[in-house]
Amino acid sequence: xxxxxxxxxxxxxxxxxxxxxxxxxxxxxxxxxxxxxxxxxxxxxxxxxxxxxxxxxxxxxxxxxxxxxxxxxxxxxxxxxxxxxxxxxxxxxxxxxxxxxxxxxxxxxxxxxxxxxxxxxxxxxxxxxxxxxxxxxxxxxxxxxxxxxxxxxxxxxxxxxxxxxxxxxxxxxxxxxxxxxxxxxxxxxxxxxxxxxxxxxxxxxxxxxxxxxxxxxxxxxxxxxxxxxxxxxxxxxxxxxxxxxxxxxxxxxxxxxxxxxxxxxxxxxxxxxxxxxxxxxxxxxxxxxxxxxxxxxxxxxxxxxxxxxxxxxxxxxxxxxxxxxxxxxxxxxxxxxxxxxxxxxxxxxxxxxxxxxxxxxxxxxxxxxxxxxxxxxxxxxxxxxxxxxxxxxxxxxxxxxxxxxxxxxxxxxxxxxxxxxxxxxxxxxxxxxxxxxxxxxxxxxxxxxxxxxxxxxxxxxxxxxxxxxxxxxxxxxxxxxxxxxxxxxxxxxxxxxxxxxxxxxxxxxxxxxxxxxxxxxxxxxxxxxxxxxxxxxxxxxxxxxxxxxxxxxxxxxxxxxxxxxxxxxxxxxxxxxxxxxxxxxxxxxxxxxxxxxxxxxxxxxxxxxxxxxxxx
Length: 616
What we know:
The protein is of the alpha+beta class. It has helices at residues 10-15, 29-38, 55-64, 80-87, 104-138, 162-166, 170-173, 178-181, 236-254, 273-279, 283-286, 300-311, 358-417, 423-454, 464-478, 497-514, 572-582; strands spanning 44-47, 73-77, 95-99, 144-149, 155-158, 200-208, 214-224, 227-234, 258-262, 268-271, 319-324, 330-341, 347-356, 459-463, 484-487, 491-496, 522-530, 533-540, 586-592, 596-602, 608-609, 613-615.
């Protein structure tokens, strides 16, 4: 109260004394400004009396100040005329008036109303300020806070976190249903029936963002008055980290490498199954040990240097070293290490990965030894080939020359003196001549065998129909026979043409020779398909042989029939096998005594069908 004199508002104080009010009184308008602008009042009552500043002027100053512009002011005038003269057109907003003499009812009503309005206004301001603080807090948390309509689950209110979490503005998401944003398999989580007011539940679900990516939110729902009050925390990163952690844990458990952790003091704090397998220590045993227990003494310093380099931030490449297992045996391992640090960059442990390469190193040493032996064998083979070539040269020149002389002298003697020989002597000279010719054939076959053993393959497409026709014509011209040769549809082979021709010459010559004593010799050249691909065969109805002796058939000078039965040197099939082997193929035989034989061979080449023919 601003009184012009000590007793001017005494009457008013008396009338309000039964109210729960606190009065502060000053006795001049000038003295009223300081407390009015610095302290909090609910009502200012001014007795408008002349002075340096009258009541109206004080009211004008208070209404122009931001702090007190909303503070109610009650001016006391003598009468209405004085009010009009004092105000002189000034705005009356926020200013009340009472007149002397005081009317008890009007005065009490006005003062009660002004104070009540001010208190309500202050309470409202405080509530608004509290709401602002709450909104600020709500909109500055990382989790999504929202209100949903219970029947439709449509968003009605949502905080600012909806934008960074889901990419929607508040305007975009409000009015849409939560169910539309959940992944289809998670919608069942919100299909809750018979939920009572005051109940709550929680769930974790995948929700589509505005860009149609999935984020995982952990929801907590409380139900009140038909509304869902919800908050949802983004746990996408947590789930991803958990997935990675579980994946890494699985990798560690299932790893074929020993993986273990030790602290800065070297104490083992983790030990996987493969570490137990390699070292022989169980996990419970290992966790009581230090890493130095499995490191040979002479490698302690090296291992400490590696750990120091890691801690210093240097990259340490994987290296081979040695360890000791539970049985005291030294094993070779491939070692690598890395640091495990926490989110603050503090060292937690050292992760060690080790692979047992003992068997690998032994195998490598064995391979090295085998390689060395192979090199030696190759050198021996080269030496043997050189000797064989020298022998072939010797056979070709040193042996053939005197052999020809023997054959020539025998012919000359027979020519000049054969008519005078006794039968026994003539028989002996015939034996010498035949033996010399046989020796000459053997020399020819040996040279052929050596030739096909060292000659380079000249691969190209070989038309088997044309080649068989050529060989058949050549054999008929050089050694006429009465065998009927049937040639089926044959393929084109990728092979050395001259070598394959020698194969056919030898096989067909044998077929003609060993079926020559049959009344109707029959020979077939054909092709059939097996698991190995297409197989070429030469079949005859000749004398055949006992299959118990088939293993000898392709050896040099191995014969199953005597020279008196069928001539030959026993090298022809050896040549055939060598040629097929050099092509990477396979040859085998099937025979029955007195019923004939079938020789089969394959070549690892692409085949294509050709037309057949018959020759006889």
